[in-house]
């Protein structure tokens, strides 16, 4: 199986999420014959879509922007499995990964006539019939909650079709870089290896394993204290800085603004 990992983290090889992804791949390698290529988009020239639609008209199937996106797109098309590995940024994917996703417009067709299945969702049909699987691996700084990833799910439901991708989301992901949490985090990485082994053997991950993957590493109240302490600034000092900001904004806008914490 040919696997392409798209590392969407600005941290590159230091990504917490990539540690999780690599654990999953180690497990897969135990139960399936795989070859893995990882593209680190933080090091690539990826420019935003111009919205010119030349890839549908003047240069069908090819973007007019000459950067690294075309080479990545060809790798995506050639892969049997694409793994999007990314941290959650403000309830969505990081901006460079979002740009790469937007630049996949040449891989869909502009024509809506007769495409009732796609019209239902307001979308366009793919240009190529490719049997390909997609996995989303992501960590976030929140403790686990279904709502944190709602925007990501909505986007990939449109891109891949609802139920046509596997999501492996891990809350409390910042703990992966904290030595105080090594024991529990290593146990969770072992669980991701198990998930990879299951996926390599059966093409899916057992529901019991999925539930454990998404469970708390530390209880929410404990994690909240650990997360707050990790910023290196007290709430009192932070509030003082906010009060200075509020004074400036109030002077410029005439609005009354108060802190809420």
What's this model, at a glance?
This protein has helices spanning 16-31, 69-78, 95-102, 116-119, 150-160, 182-202, 207-213, 220-229, 235-253, and strands at 2-7, 35-40, 81-87, 133-139, 166-170. It is of the alpha/beta class and 261 residues long.
Widest sheet: strand ordering = 2-1-3-4-5
User: What is the overall pLDDT average?
Assistant: 90
**Count of DSSP helices?**
9
Q: Note the main sheet.
A: 5 strands, parallel
- The helix fraction, in percent, is 40-55%
The string of secondary-structure elements, in order, is EHEHEHHEHEHHHH
What's the β-strand tally? 5
User: Hey, roughly how much beta strand do the residues contain?
Assistant: 5-15%
Q: Termini distance?
A: 50 Å
Structural class call reads alpha/beta
> Which overall shape is indicated by the principal axes computed on the Cα atoms?
globular
Subunit arrangement of the protein: single chain
Please mark out the parts with pLDDT under 50 across 5 or more consecutive residues, or reply none. none
**Any idea what the radius of gyration is?**
21 Å
Set down the secondary structure blueprint.
Layout: E1 2-7, H1 16-31, E2 35-40, H2 69-78, E3 81-87, H3 95-102, H4 116-119, E4 133-139, H5 150-160, E5 166-170, H6 182-202, H7 207-213, H8 220-229, H9 235-253
Parallel strand pairs: 1-2, 1-3, 3-4, 4-5
Helix pairs in contact: 1-6, 6-7
Task: Explain the overall architecture.
The protein has helices at residues 16-31, 69-78, 95-102, 116-119, 150-160, 182-202, 207-213, 220-229, 235-253, and strands at 2-7, 35-40, 81-87, 133-139, 166-170. It has a five-stranded parallel β-sheet with strand order 2-1-3-4-5, sandwiched between helices. It is α/β, with parallel strands linked by helices and 261 residues long. The chain contains nine helices and five strands; from the N terminus they run βαβαβααβαβαααα. Helix content is 41%, strand content 12%. 25% of the residues are buried. α5 links the parallel β4 (133-139) and β5.
């Amino acid at each position: 199986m040919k696997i392409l990992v798209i590392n969407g983290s600005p941290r590159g090889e230091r990504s917490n999420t990539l540690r999780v992804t690599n654990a999953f791949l180690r497990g897969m390698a135990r139960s399936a014959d795989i070859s893995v290529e990882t593209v680190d988009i933080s090091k690539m020239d990826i420019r935003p879509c111009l919205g010119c639609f030349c890839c549908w008209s003047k240069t069908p199937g090819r973007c007019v922007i000459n950067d690294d996106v075309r080479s990545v797109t060809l790798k995506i098309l050639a892969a049997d499995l694409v793994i999007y590995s990314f941290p959650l940024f403000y309830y969505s994917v990081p901006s460079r990964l979002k740009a790469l996703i937007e630049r996949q417009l040449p891989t869909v067709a502009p024509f809506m006539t007769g495409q009732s299945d796609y019209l239902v969702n307001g979308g366009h049909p793919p240009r190529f019939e490719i049997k390909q699987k997609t996995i989303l691996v992501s960590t976030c700084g929140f403790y686990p909650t279904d709502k944190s990833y709602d925007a990501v799910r909505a986007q990939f439901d449109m891109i891949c079709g609802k139920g046509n991708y596997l999501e492996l989301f891990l809350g409390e992901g910042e703990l992966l870089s904290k030595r105080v949490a090594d024991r529990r985090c290593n146990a969770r990485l072992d669980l991701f290896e198990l998930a990879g082994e299951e996926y390599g053997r059966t093409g899916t991950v057992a529901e019991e394993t999925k539930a454990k993957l998404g469970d708390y590493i530390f209880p929410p109240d404990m994690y909240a204290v650990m997360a707050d302490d990790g910023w290196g600034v007290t709430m009192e000092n932070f509030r003082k800085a906010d009060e200075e900001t509020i004074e400036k904004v109030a002077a410029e806008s005439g609005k009354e603004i108060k802190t809420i914490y």
